[in-house]
Sequence to fold (191 residues):
Amino acid sequence: VTTNTNGEYRINASANVTLVFSSVGYLTKEVDIAGQSQINVVLSLSATNLEQVVVVGYGTQKRQELTGAISSVSNETLNITPVADVSGALQGRVPGLNVVNNGSPGTAPIISIRGISSISFASDPLYVVDGFPTTNISGLDMRDVESVDVLKDASSAAIYGSRGTNGVIMITTKKGTRDKTIHVDLNSYFG
Fold:
């Protein structure tokens, strides 16, 4: 069974069985019923499971069950080089992703995933920022990006339709935490 939005559940089970509680990003917990009529469980966060989960257009999937061609780039990899935009950070880091500078400074580069799929239309991929499709990510600050997943095969077109025929670049931004400590990050570059 699955819980509702409040975490409440109801299950018909024998008195001598074991219930297994699981959720994406949390450790699995097994509890013996032992004749109890109400069982409350709190799951612990699992950092190791989060690395094995890949964000796709219709939710999340475990990496070993993934059949599509997806490349993931983490925050640590993106922040190695001092670049202003996501396309510059992805240059040379994702197989099959071509980033070509378009000449003058400040101009968005030309991005293509696994070549050009149409002769008469643009080759730009679809950008999905935190689940919202967009065509322009020039206003997105690199320091706000947590991870980038690049969907390179036909499964992206199955999810997003004709907008995803040139591939999909899924960007996940950073979220706030409630650990009651102040964090300060400083990035400085000079030349």
